[in-house]
């Protein structure tokens, strides 16, 4: 009997591991939008500091890596399925997140020239504005 109980418990535990992921809800998507907007603003500030020559290359590299990781983490809820009613919102937040990530991953800010920094400042401003409009502030 004990063996059957252990077997049943193990089967239930394994079944839980393979169950579908939780759907992304409105709160998840709004949080992803808020986080994306915040990371985009921080990225734009970093670009501004680089343009002004206020930060060293090592600091810029480390900060850019941290921002990339933050952007990946903020996008995690966007990789889950969403109910039909939220798919439009999810796609819009995904677009802002993708724009932010592309900007962060495309060019090392520490070695970017003035024209590239200006372009990235615009990318981050656009991604931030796009995400901020989707925050769902209460």
From TrEMBL:
Its domain of life? Bacteria
Query: Protein name, please?
Result: Lipoprotein
Q: Which organism is it from?
A: Caenimonas aquaedulcis
């Amino acid at each position: 009997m004990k063996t059957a109980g252990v077997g049943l418990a193990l089967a239930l535990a394994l079944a839980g591991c393979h169950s579908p992921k939780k759907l992304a809800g409105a709160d998840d998507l709004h949080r992803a939008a808020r986080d994306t907007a915040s990371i985009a603003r921080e990225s734009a500030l970093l670009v501004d500091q680089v343009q002004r020559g206020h930060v060293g290359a090592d600091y810029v590299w480390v900060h850019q890596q941290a921002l990339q990781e933050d952007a990946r983490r903020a996008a995690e809820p966007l990789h889950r399925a969403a109910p039909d009613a939220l798919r439009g919102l999810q796609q819009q937040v995904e677009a802002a997140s993708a724009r932010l990530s592309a900007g962060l991953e495309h060019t090392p800010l520490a070695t970017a020239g003035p024209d590239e920094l200006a372009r990235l400042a615009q990318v981050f401003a656009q991604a931030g504005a796009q995400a901020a409009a989707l925050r769902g502030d209460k």
